[in-house]
Target: Aspartate aminotransferase
Amino acid sequence: TKQYLDLPVAPADLAFGLMAEFDADPHPSKVSLIAGAYRDENGLPWILPSVNEAKACLEKNSNHEYLGIAGSPEFIKLAQSLIFGETSETIKEHIASIQTVSGTGANHMAALFLAKHLRPQRVFIPSPTWVNHQSIWTMAGVPHEEYPYYSSETRTVKLEGMLAALEQKAQPNDVVILQACAHNPTGVDLFKSQWAEVARVIKRKNLFVVFDSAYQGFATGDVDGDAWAVRYFVEQLILTAESDSTHPGLCIAQSFSKNFGLYGERVGALHLVVPRHLSPQGAQSELMSIARSEYSNPPRFGASIVQTVLGSPRLRDQWQADLNTMSARIMVMRRALRQRLEELGAPGNWSHIESQIGMFSYTGLTREHVQRLRNEFHIYLLLSGRVSICGLNEGNVDYVARAIREVVR
Ligand code: PMP
Model:
């Protein structure tokens, strides 16, 4: 076994490595389409007006005391009603919730908790998915297996393959990661009828779903629409389940990074929904003892911003307007890129750029295309062909479209 002195140096994180290369590039027309963070029409980070107002309120009457181990109770309540909507009242008694170190921390806490107490043989993750899913579950000691998710030929979800993999390979109590909306990196989500088919297999095979919800409201501007799949699963697996159901429950890893623009403040929550005949209290205490030994208690500042916004009807309206601003700008840029590519006669079909959802577009550009975009045009994106639409604006979309036309023709 390796000791600390002879550990190999792991390759740098690809996305973070690429961002460093971008920063070092002196070219005046360089464009970064790498990072999953919103940028305004001038290419700058944007502080949401609702967040700015909440910060002004907080300045007057906040302190730097520790939160409790499970975080701020008021924040947790508001986070629950945001994700569960009207059903939150009905199932409150069946949820163990803790504030987490953002969405990553929520996924991590879910993995630690489930590895110890559900003891799945495997975790099933979409192919492709957010890179950290694999790392988080590997750290927790649970082997992963990919299920087919995206077809690059049809640029749609590979539903048959996905269902067949779960049907044939998953064992009871295995974990399935589902992204709640705005799938990273493909921008392709399941339709409602497809969610229903997945829910049926999950229910029949007693699989445990971890919903990763990182884009609620950010994806479409519609907070409830973006939570539809989560609420549907809660209804099917918990609320309307037969009383003798042996289904193990599900959980939701909730991030506030994108929908509040609070990336560096690390605001999130994990909600574990247990079957209705069980009490969540044991799970709650176990989540708290894991949190205690990992970081004692979660950060205060970002959660108090979210709590201030969601707790005030006026600031909540402003937040809705902010969500509309972000999601609408992304949709405008999707349309602009598609239109420019078509006007320029770039070979191929570009309609997917407009129809995909959320921050990312899986463009279908190959590694060679991506390398040429970087070397010849100083345009940076992941080798998979994933672009962050947020990096586009009126000032660079034409340049990007022309560069793409050059490399694909
Ligand atoms: N899940 C998915 C699918 C994501 O895209 C992200 C952000 N890139 C996260 C979770 C977690 O982000 P954070 O830790 O900033 O909340």
